[in-house]
Amino acid sequence: MKKYLTMTGELILLLGTFLMVATIHNDYIVPNSGAYGNFMFNNLPIWISVMFAVTSVLVLVIFQIRRLVLKDRYESIAAMSRFTRLRKEDVLLTSLMGIFTGLLFICMIKVSFIANHFPDFNEYIDMFMRSQSFIMIIIGLCIIGPLFEEIFFRGILFNLMLKKMPFIAALLLQAVIYGYCQPNPSIQVIAVFLAIIYGILYYRLQSIWSTIITAAVMNTIIFVSKKTGLLDALSSIPDHVLLLITGICLLFIIVLLKAVWHEDTKINNLKMIGNLFLWTSVYSLVYYPFIFGVWNNGVMRISAINQWLGHNNIFGFLPYDILALVVYYFVMKKVHKQNLIKVSNFTRISVKNGVLIAIMGTMMGVWVQCLFLFPYFSQNFPQFEQLTVYLTTAILPVYIAFLVYHSIYKEIFFRALVYNVLRSALPMWISVLMTGIIYGGLFFNWDPLLTVYACLGALIFSLLFEWYKSIWAPIINEFFVFAAYYVVRKLELAYGRGIVWTFTICTIGVLCFMIYLWKNRDTERKQPVAVEQVKVSA
C-alpha cells in the first residue's frame, strides 16, 4: 500500500506542476500581459516552448529535492528516461511509425463525417500554425514539443508507474493522463491512442529516443502537409479512399507494434514494408508516365492510328506490360540479386489441374458477366458496364494478345511480387485482402464496388497461387476469366430467367471447383521462392 501512496504522491506533484504552469501562464499571464501576450498569441510554438521550459526548470528542482531525500537510491531524469542509442532498424521502425501515424491522422480528419462533426481537429492544427515563421513551428512543435512531452510523460511519469504497477495498468494510466493534458476532447481521444503506441515502443525498445523520433516525424508530417496545402487538398479526395488509406496505415501501425513486441519478427516486417513500398513505387513510376503521358498524350494523338486505337483501347497495355516486366526484371536483379522468372515460380502443374482451373476460370467469367446483367447492378453501378465495354471492344487478335501478356504481367506483379512480399510477414487472409485493396487502388482508384470486385479476384487467384505453388495456376485462371468476358459480351445476352439460372449454376460450380482444387492441390510442390526483402543492417 505504501508504494502506491508514494507513487501517487509523486505523480500528483509532477503532474500538478505541469498543470499549474499551464494554467498560470495560459490563463493569467498571456491574456493580461499586453505585448508579451499578443506576441505569444501570434506565435503558438514559442508559447508552448516557453511553457515547457518553465515546467522543465521546476521539474529539475523537484528532482534535486528527490536527490537529497533518496540519496543512493536517486535516479536522474536522464537515467530514468534512458537515452539509449537505438539500433539502425529501430530508428527505421520508429520513423515508419511516425509516418503511418501522421498519414492516418491527416487522412482521418478529412473524412466528411469527422470533419463536419469534430471540427476540433482542424482547429487544433490551424491554432498551432499561428506563427511568424514556419521554422519556429518545426522547432517548437516537431523538436522541443516531442522532446519535452516524451521525457515528461514516458521518461518520468510512465517509469514511476512501471516501478509500482503491472505493465498494462501503467500503460493505460499514462495514456489517460497524457490524453487529459491535451487542449480539447477530440485531441484527447487521439492522444490516448498515441500514448498507448508510445508506451509500447518505449517499454520494448528501452529508449526514450524511440518515442521522440515517432512523435517528431508524425508532427512534421502533419504541419508540413498543412503548410504545403496537402492537408487542404485531401478534402477533395472521396471518403472511401481516405478511409482505405486510414485503414492501411492502421494495419501497418499494428504490424510495426507486433514487430516491436516480437523481436524475432522485426527485421522481417521491416523488409516487408520496404519491399511493398519498392514495388508499388516502381509500378507507379512506370505506369502513370507511360499510360497518361506517352500513350494518352502521345501515341493516341497520332492521327493515322488514333481511330483504330480508340476501338482497341487495351492495345496500349501490351507495350506497357512488356516495358514494366523488363523494368521489374532489372530492379529485381539490381536490388535483390535474383531472377524475376525464378522468383515468380513458373513451376509446371499437371494437365488435369490446368484444365480444371481453366474451366473454373470460364465459370467465374460467366458468373461476373451475368451478375453485371442483373437490373440492380446494371442500373445502380454503371462502372461495371464501363469496365466490360472498355475490356471487350477490341478486335479478337488484339484481345487474345492482351489476355496472354496482361494475365502474365498482372500475376507476376500481384502474386509473385505484392502477394509474396505481404505473405512473407502476414497471415494468408490479410495478405489476400491487402493484395485486393492494392489492386483496387492501382487499377480502379479505390472505387468501392470495383475494389470489392478486385478483392474477390485476388482471393481466388491468391489461393490458387498458394495451393499450387506455381504462377501458372492464377495465370490460367485469369486468362479464361477474361476470355469468358469477351465471349459473353459478344453474345449480347439480355437479362432473363436464363441469366439467373446460369448465374446460379456458375455460383455452385465455382464453389465446387474451389473445394475440389483445394482437396487435390499439388502438395508435393515446393514453396514459392519468397522475394528477398530489402536489407536492413542490424
TrEMBL record:
Keyword annotations: Hydrolase, Membrane, Metalloprotease, Protease, Transmembrane, Transmembrane helix
GO molecular function terms noted in the UniProt entry: metallopeptidase activity
InterPro entries per record: CAAX_protease (IPR052710), Rce1/LyrA-like_dom (IPR003675)
Transmembrane regions listed in the UniProt entry: 46-70, 91-114, 134-153, 165-180, 186-203, 208-225, 240-261, 273-294, 314-332, 353-377, 389-409, 421-442, 448-464, 471-488, 494-518
Superkingdom per UniProt: Bacteria
Domain CAAX prenyl protease 2/Lysostaphin resistance protein A-like per the UniProt entry, residue ranges: 133-220, 395-477
Alphabetized Pfam families for the sequence: Rce1-like
PANTHER family for the chain: CAAX AMINO TERMINAL PROTEASE FAMILY PROTEIN, SLR1288 PROTEIN
Official protein name in the record: CPBP family intramembrane metalloprotease
Native species: Paenibacillus terricola
